[in-house]
Specification:
169 residues, alpha+beta, PH-domain like, 8-stranded antiparallel β-sheet, 3-stranded antiparallel β-sheet, 5 helices, elongated
Length: 169
């Protein structure tokens, strides 16, 4: 049996399972450099401090040389998301967590496109949310100034409405 097989077969710590919300399911876990645990579940990424980062709010993840860099996007106004500062996690025992995280994020994205509206680059994203029917739609502006321009915002909202009505997923 290889070391990888052994790591995958080790049962997760009981404390980690207890930290999950009722009805949630553990999909993968890892050990951080300080010995704390990181969990990927059906609902999201459970950080060592206990905070759940839902999959549909993860904007970007980079896995490189034992480090997982997670960038979450928060709603800054109705239907508009903006990237938060990234969280860097050093994994001493990554197990299958990076692959699980990648798969869950990809699975959550139902549709994405980038358009230019009145000179502003805008990304339209439709995400699946565990336990909820339908899609969660949002806009991402390349520039906060564009987001705050009433004309650009109105054109972006119109584009979003058209995209939603023309798309069948």
């Amino acid at each position: 049996m290889s070391l990888l097989d052994k790591l995958r077969r080790d049962p997760p710590p009981t404390d980690l399972l207890r930290a999950l919300d009722r009805g949630d399911r553990l999909l993968g876990w890892a050990v951080l450099d300080d010995g704390t645990l990181l969990a990927a579940s059906r609902l999201g990424l459970r950080l060592a401090d206990g905070r759940l980062v839902p999959w549909h709010t993860v904007d970007n993840v980079v896995w490189r040389a034992g480090t997982l860099i997670v960038t979450e996007a928060a709603e800054v106004s109705a239907g508009v998301r903006e990237a938060l500062p990234p969280v860097t996690l050093s994994l001493t025992e990554p197990r299958d967590l990076p692959a699980v995280v990648r798969a869950r994020i990809i699975r959550s994205i139902a549709y994405t496109t980038t358009e230019t509206v009145r000179g502003a680059r805008i990304r339209i994203v439709a995400r699946r949310v565990p336990g909820r029917d339908g899609l969660s739609w949002s806009l991402r502006f390349d520039s906060a100034a564009d987001r705050d321009d009433p004309g650009v915002r109105a054109a972006a909202d119109q584009l979003l409405t058209e995209t939603q009505s023309n798309l069948t997923l």
